[in-house]
Design goal:
With 248 residues, the chain is an alpha+beta fold. 19% of the residues lie in helices and 24% in strands. It has seven helices and eleven strands. The strands form three sheets. The chain has a seven-stranded antiparallel β-sheet, with helices on both faces. A hairpin with a 4-residue loop joins strand 9 and strand 10. It is globular. It starts with 39 loop residues before the first strand and ends with a helix.
């Protein structure tokens, strides 16, 4: 199991303020973003997530996907359920039933075929957000497939993704009032041997069927939207631009 400990000073800031960047000694994994000490962060076999007890969705989900992991052979039907390792309140299957929204994985079920336990834990609602059905099945899936191809090409890829809430008034589903995101982001980083390359994707939570390139943006631009340092161990210069030739 991958385990990370992060110690950060108490953060007092507006929700759009950028979280402080931990030092290399405080963060041992490239994919883990900066987070505040009061976040409910849980580490499972295949991913780490910060669960928000107001939105009842993860604020972020992070994992490293390796070439070997993309070649896993476990198959398992989805078994959505509450995460036993996070506190209440939390979402349940009933909140999504007949809502018209997909149970959208942040860390994909298909990324976890290397372990039956990892597949099971990927179905926890710690890793799930309400997603538009067509977007989930089309544009979002294309980025998931691209990420797996990149892991095979480069040996591994660091991933962090999550929801974006643009307005104070949110759509809700279920008796527990699970917040429906307005948008989603996914940020990728690879080690190039002499540094890092990064790219991010940002898309609306509605019908989306474009190619990954049509949603590509810099990691810096996503960090400005969500107010969080997504890759504290990656130099700022690598987050300020992306070269699509690296990612296509």
């Amino acid at each position: 199991m991958k385990v990370t400990f992060i110690l950060m000073p108490l953060l007092v800031a507006a929700c759009t303020a950028r979280l402080p960047q931990p030092s290399a000694q405080e963060v041992q994994r490239v994919e883990i973003p900066a987070y505040a000490p009061d976040e409910d962060v849980v580490t499972h076999l295949g991913y780490t997530a910060s669960y928000n007890h107001t939105t009842l969705c993860p604020d972020w989900v992070a994992w490293e996907l390796t070439d070997e992991e993309t070649r896993g052979e476990f198959e398992q039907q989805r078994q959505f359920g509450r995460d036993p390792d996070v506190d209440f309140p939390k979402a349940s299957r009933e909140d999504y039933s007949n809502s018209g929204w997909d149970k959208g994985h942040m860390a994909p079920h298909a990324d976890m075929k290397w372990s039956r336990q990892a597949m099971t834990e990927s179905d926890y609602f710690t890793n799930i957000c309400p997603q538009n059905r067509e977007m989930n099945a089309q544009a979002w899936r294309k980025i998931e497939e691209l990420t797996r191809r990149l892991a095979r090409r480069y040996g591994s890829v660091y991933v962090v993704c999550g929801p974006v809430y643009d307005s104070a008034e949110h759509r809700h589903i279920g008796q527990a009032c699970v917040h429906v995101p307005d948008r989603f982001f996914k940020a990728l980083a690879i080690s190039t041997g002499d540094g890092f390359s990064t790219v991010a994707f940002l898309m609306e939570n509605n019908y989306q069927n474009g190619s990954p390139r049509s949603y590509a943006v810099t990691v810096d631009s996503v960090e400005a939207v969500i107010g969080r340092n997504l890759f504290p161990l990656v130099p700022e210069a690598a987050e300020a631009e992306y070269d699509w030739n690296v990612w296509k």
